[in-house]
Predict the 3D structure of the following.
Amino acid sequence: MKWDNSFAIGIDAIDKQHKQIFEHLLAIENSVAKRDPWHILHFFLTQLTEYMKFHLAVEEALLEIVRYPDRDTHCGSHARLIDQITTLEDQLKGKPSGENLVGFFEDWFVRHVLASDRDYAAYVTKEFPELSGASAT
Ligand SMILES: [Fe+2]
Ligand SMILES: [Fe+2]
């Protein structure tokens, strides 16, 4: 799955990071499709995991700055996302032939994460329009 502009939530800095996450997912998908050995796949998975942690920390800092009322719930969903990545990693390690596992993760990411990010984005763009940044993309 590729980044689609319909995934954009309207906060420029965050949209750039979400795009970057798709790049990492694509690298994993390609690696799985090529039947790369585990150590190569693991390299791409590590990049995704580390980038995801960075992204979630940025979001959590943003939600604190703007005093987002549902911050705790949102941070809870971030913790589940990290769990999901760990599960994906374990499954790919066991049988690195599962393209559909990556697809499943992408699907989950799009449905759950981008959807709940959209909720805080609506709050931020309304209450703190200066933080949303003029999207030039
Ligand atoms: Fe989020
Ligand atoms: Fe996000």
